[in-house]
Structures are given as structure tokens and as C-alpha cells.
């Protein structure tokens, strides 16, 4: 196959990208999007600050633009993200305790209901674990509402949209380490108690290479009975093309790895300013990393 999406589809997988609503008028950007990708994530437009700027007042304009573009071009959508300690609207940042808990769950219910039946998966909770060696939760006002906030969010999301796969998503979880093991233990606990979780997202913001145990780490989560997804892939550094191929091969080697999403299209679209971590250069030309991903997908 000659495009990323079609090549991934040969093994039943998807190949996606993050999309910014403000770029849907850029013809170079849209041409690549429409040609290469068959899954779309809103880079910012479905986050809490964007969708509920004032408490109880919802705004789906940016998210809907992206969803409508995707659907009308035959692409699926990953929803990102229902609850995240960053990009909380100001009113939520100023809340704590049971008041905040109620607002959080209402947010999950309202947004998941708006997009009911329209998204393939939701990042229900994003980045709730701490960096470093503790393996524990990250402190935030969300966490301070009680350790059960994550499972409560997953239950609320399932009730609102039973058809969406519900994911936990995080970064620095790309190999076996204290943080990924903390998440692994949570997922195992959720599965054993029937908390509705279907997938784990590995953001994979990488420099030069993936950890040597990248595939093994995906596999141990898959062995818990959840789908694994590579959700925000970008790789900087001189070994970029090899590293992209290694990540692609790792996903292909794990039966429950459903697909790969890169976090933007052109290097100039990336949040990592100056890192040039994506598959297309600023002019929209394919980079060596593009060819190595396409070759890896085609040799599966
Ligand atoms: O839209 C406003 C604009 O009106 C304002 O003038 C401008 C001034 O700063 O800011 C614009 O908003 C920015 C927004 O991106 C849209 O460009 C925010 O400041 C900026 O913080 C925001 O950054 C996003 C970041 O998440 C927020 O933490 C990045 O685009 C986005 O790529 C990044 O994505 C995250 C994932 O959601 C979760 N995983 C990590 C990943 C990278 O940080």
C-alpha cells in the first residue's frame, strides 16, 4: 500500500494523527491528512478547557469541526481527553473536593454523551500517574477528590457511551518502569473488579530511540486483556527513521496493538518546537522516517 492508513489497514490497524481545527483551511495540511491517515485525534479541541469554558456551558465547535472533517472523509476519531490535570478551565482549577468531583463527572457524562456513537475510543483519563520511581498517582485537584476518581470516570464514560473504547493514556510509560508498572497494576485491578477499561494509550514522545523493552511493555498490558494504542508518537534525533520503524514493528508484533497516531503532521505542526519529530517536513514532503514507517507497515 502507498499510504500510511492503507498500509496499516492491511493488518487491521489504523494510522492516525493529531489535528488542529485551525489548520483545516491549510490545503497542504488537509491534503496530507486526507491522503495518509484514517484516524484523527483533536490536538486540543475536545479537552476540558475547550469544551466547558464555563461551568455547565458546553462548546463543541472546534471538536465538531474536526469530527465532521474526519467522518466526511471516512476516518475514525479518538476522543482526547475527558479528564486531565492540565488544560482544566479556570473555574475547575479553583475547585476541590466533592464540588469538583461532581463537576468532573458531569463533564465526563456531558462530553461523552455529545459524542456518543461517534468516537472509536476516548482517553478518559490522561496523565494521572507521577513521574519518577514512586509508581503512584500524580498530585492534582482531581486526585485529591479521592483515589477512586479514575474508576468513577471510566464508569461514567461507559454509561454515557457504551460503544466507545475507554482508554487510560500517559507518557514516559514506553518501557517497563515504575510509572508504567503503577499503571499496569491499576489496569489489572480494574480488570479484576470489572471497572470498564478497554485500552491503554502510550503517548511515545521519544528522543532517538524507543526503550529496548518497548514491545515487551506493550505485550504485558495486552496480556491483561486490554487493547494497546500508540497515541501521540513523535521522535526527535538523528536516529529518527530507525526508531520510527522500531515502534511500528513493535505495534505490529503485538496482536492487541490497534494502531499508531503521530502527534501532528508536519514538523512545523509539532508542539516540540525545533525538534522536527514528525513524518513530514515543514513543506509537507515525506521524510526518511515516513518511508521507514511505510516499509515496516508493508512488510508485516
Ligand atoms: O489557542 C490559544 C491562543 O488563543 C493563544 O493566543 C495562545 C497563546 O499562548 O495559546 C493558544 O493555546 C495553546 C494551544 O496549545 C493551541 O495552540 C496553548 O497555549 C498551549 O498550551 C496548547 O498546547 C497544547 C498542549 O497539549 C497543552 O498542554 C499543545 O498544542 C498540544 O500538542 C499538547 O498535547 C499534549 C496532549 O494533549 C497530552 N500529552 C502531551 C501532549 C504534549 O504536551
Automatic annotation (TrEMBL):
Coiled coil: none annotated. Its EC number is 3.2.1.8. The keyword Hydrolase applies. Transmembrane segments: none annotated. GO terms for biological process: xylan catabolic process. Keywords: Carbohydrate metabolism, Glycosidase, Hydrolase, Polysaccharide degradation, Signal, Xylan degradation. One of its GO terms (molecular function) is endo-1,4-beta-xylanase activity. It catalyses: Endohydrolysis of (1->4)-beta-D-xylosidic linkages in xylans. The active site is at residue 232. Residues 1-296 form the GH10 domain. Belongs to the glycosyl hydrolase 10 (cellulase F) family. This is Beta-xylanase. The lineage of its organism: Bacteria, Bacillati, Actinomycetota, Actinomycetes, Pseudonocardiales. The chain holds residues 38 to 337 of 467 of the full protein.
Amino acid at each position: 500500500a502507498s499510504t500510511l492508513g492503507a498500509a496499516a489497514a492491511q493488518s487491521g490497524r489504523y494510522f492516525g494523527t493529531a489535528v488542529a481545527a485551525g489548520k483545516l483551511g491549510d490545503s497542504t495540511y488537509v491534503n496530507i491528512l486526507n491522503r495518509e491517515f484514517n484516524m484523527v485525534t483533536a490536538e486540543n479541541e475536545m479537552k476540558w478547557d475547550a469544551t466547558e469554558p464555563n461551568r455547565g456551558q458546553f462548546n463543541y465547535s472546534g471538536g465538531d469541526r474536526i469530527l465532521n472533517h474526519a467522518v466526511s472523509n471516512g476516518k475514525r476519531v479518538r476522543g482526547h481527553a475527558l479528564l486531565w490535570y492540565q488544560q482544566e478551565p479556570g473555574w475547575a482549577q479553583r475547585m476541590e473536593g466533592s464540588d469538583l468531583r461532581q463537576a468532573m463527572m458531569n463533564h465526563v457524562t456531558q462530553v461523552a454523551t455529545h459524542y456518543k456513537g461517534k468516537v472509536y475510543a476516548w482517553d478518559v483519563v490522561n496523565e494521572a500517574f507521577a513521574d519518577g520511581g514512586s509508581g503512584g498517582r500524580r498530585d492534582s485537584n482531581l486526585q485529591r477528590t479521592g483515589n477512586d476518581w479514575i474508576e468513577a470516570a471510566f464508569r461514567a464514560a461507559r454509561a454515557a457511551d457504551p460503544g466507545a473504547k475507554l482508554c487510560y493514556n500517559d507518557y514516559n510509560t514506553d518501557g517497563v518502569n515504575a510509572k508504567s508498572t503503577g499503571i499496569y497494576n491499576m489496569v489489572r485491578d480494574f480488570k479484576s473488579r470489572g471497572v470498564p477499561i478497554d485500552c491503554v494509550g502510550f503517548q511515545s514522545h521519544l528522543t532517538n530511540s524507543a526503550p529496548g523493552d518497548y514491545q515487551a511493555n506493550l505485550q504485558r498490558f495486552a496480556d491483561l486483556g486490554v487493547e494497546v494504542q500508540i497515541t501521540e508518537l513523535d521522535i526527535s534525533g538523528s536516529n529518527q527513521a530507525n526508531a520510527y520503524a522500531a515502534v511500528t514493528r513493535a505495534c505490529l508484533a503485538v496482536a492487541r496493538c490497534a494502531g499508531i497516531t503521530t502527534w501532528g503532521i508536519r514538523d512545523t505542526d509539532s508542539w516540540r518546537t525545533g525538534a522536527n519529530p514528525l513524518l513530514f517536513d515543514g513543506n509537507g514532503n515525506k521524510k526518511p522516517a515516513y518511508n521507514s514507517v511505510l516499509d515496516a507497515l508493508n512488510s508485516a
